[in-house]
Design a protein that fits this description.
By secondary structure, this protein is an alpha/beta fold. The protein folds into 2 domains: 196 residues, inorganic pyrophosphatase (n-terminal core), CATH 3.90.1640; 121 residues, Diaminopimelate Epimerase, Chain A, domain 1, CATH 3.10.310.30. It has 14 helices and 13 strands. The strands form 2 sheets. It has a 7-stranded parallel sheet with strand order 4-3-2-1-5-6-7. Strands 8-9-10-11-13-12 form a 6-stranded mixed sheet. Helix 7 runs antiparallel to helix 8. The longest helix has 17 residues. The radius of gyration is 19 Å and the shape is globular.
């Protein structure tokens, strides 16, 4: 699904100040897309700030050595975030996923834009540049750079490489195409460093993360004749293992490494007692359908939702929905 980037070019040409934001608890696609887009705009002489609801997770801090990504309420106020000509939301089309930055987006009198690849979405009032067939929002940002003839710096290339590599499961998901690999080749030509980035992403675990992973994997339960796997994280686990909340990233994917498992989910208790739920599946299952039952969303094979606590009740609700979903296949 080709996107016409000419309207975006016109908006960029007609404005000077830009605020970029993404979803709560940003992943590498979210941060890489923001940093890549910031580089594009700054090359064109624009003033750019990146303001998110969440801080950069410690394990992804290497993506933002200049600490460009600010957290609302921590050094920048809502009024300061509103002081702009254009707001661009990247890798998100949901009020719930915008969290505190949603208030800014609702209040702003600035031009609103959305650049995203998620299938599930809400109308958040911005002009959309969206391709649900794209493997990552970072790939769309690379398209922007190409369409606007902006040279890609090494820092931008590294950011967009991480965005695409992580959202394709390091190129093993069915969303990976020949076009994906051509984009990756171009990013390497621009200076992206695959070996270094892989090491930064996957070979810098703390002892706490390893201990947490062991605890979480010990809780894995199989249902539906071994087709469904699920586990959970209690908030107290972080203190007891010395882990950080961001250390749960990707743990749900471990469940899919079990032979015979077609779908999986992990539920993670938050400090505010809400329950973050991540769903994963093989290519023939659309877990986005289940996520939407809980006002969440995402992609066919990877989706998420936030449920009210307590954890035991949230686990029962999601387990019932997933057993029904998998059992009907």
């Amino acid at each position: 699904m080709a996107i016409d980037w000419e309207p975006l070019r016109a908006i960029i040409n007609d404005n000077q100040r830009f605020v970029l934001t993404t979803h709560v608890r940003p992943d590498a696609d979210a941060l890489g897309s923001e940093l890549g887009m910031a580089g594009i705009l700054e090359h064109l002489g624009k003033t750019v700030r990146i303001v998110n609801s969440s801080a950069v997770p410690p394990r992804l801090a290497f993506l933002d050595p200049g600490k460009r990504c600010l957290q609302l309420g921590n050094g920048i106020t809502e009024e300061q975030a509103l002081d702009t000509d254009v707001h661009i939301v990247l890798d998100c089309s949901s009020w719930g996923q915008l969290a505190e930055m949603g208030r800014v987006f609702r209040r702003t009198k600035a031009t609103k834009l959305v650049i995203d690849h998620h299938a599930s979405s809400e109308d958040i009032g911005g002009k959309e540049f969206k391709d649900v067939t794209s493997e990552a929002t970072g790939a769309l940002v690379f398209q922007v750079a190409t369409a606007l003839k902006v040279p890609v710096s090494q820092a931008m290339a590294n950011a967009m490489y991480c965005a695409i590599a992580t959202d394709t499961g390091w190129f093993r998901f069915p969303s990976t195409t020949s076009s994906t690999m051509r984009t990756i080749a171009s990013l390497i030509d621009f200076g992206a460093q695959p070996a270094l980035l892989y090491r930064q992403l996957y070979e810098q675990c703390t002892p706490g993360r390893i201990k947490l992973a062991g605890r979480v994997m010990s809780r894995v339960t199989l249902e539906c004749g071994g087709k469904l796997a699920h586990t959970y994280v209690e908030y107290k686990d972080y203190q007891e293992t010395g882990a950080d909340p961001s250390d749960t990233e990707d743990m749900v994917n471990y469940c899919l490494t079990i032979a015979g498992v077609d779908a999986a989910f992990i539920q993670i208790e938050q400090s505010n007692t809400q329950i973050k739920t991540s769903f994963r599946s093989r290519s023939h299952l659309d877990v986005n359908q289940v996520a939407e039952q809980f006002q969440g969303g995402g992609h066919k094979q990877a989706a998420g939702a936030i449920l009210p606590g307590p954890l035991v009740e949230a686990r029962a609700r999601v387990l019932n929905a997933m057993k029904t979903f998998v059992g009907h296949l």
